[in-house]
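= Protein in question =
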Amino acid sequence: MEQPYGPPLRPGYNMALASVIVGAVGLVGGCCVPLIGIPAGIVAIVLGVMGLNAAARPEGAEDSTRTMAIIGIVLGALTALIGILGAIWSVFFLKHFMKGLPGMPGRPPGM
């Protein structure tokens, strides 16, 4: 008798897929809002590692699951890196921007 819903998924497939999705969304969102990239990158890395570990179990998994997990880890690392760089850039930008506003400390008198 056949299973009504198709064959079971490969071990680690869901975590690897979630890692790729969170990494890609975080990469796009992290370019616009830097603080989104840092936690999204960490989540993508953790999910990718969990998917990679699940794919390495004795029951085995296809190479596509491992590849997807590795892609998720790389996307997560890029997302976290861009988030960190964006946060650093934002701090320096705001620091210099605030010096140029009237009534803020650091503005030369008479301007």
In short: The mean pLDDT is 82. The CA atoms of residues 14 and 98 lie 46 Å apart. The first helix runs from residue 13 to 32. The chain is about 70% helix and 0% strand.
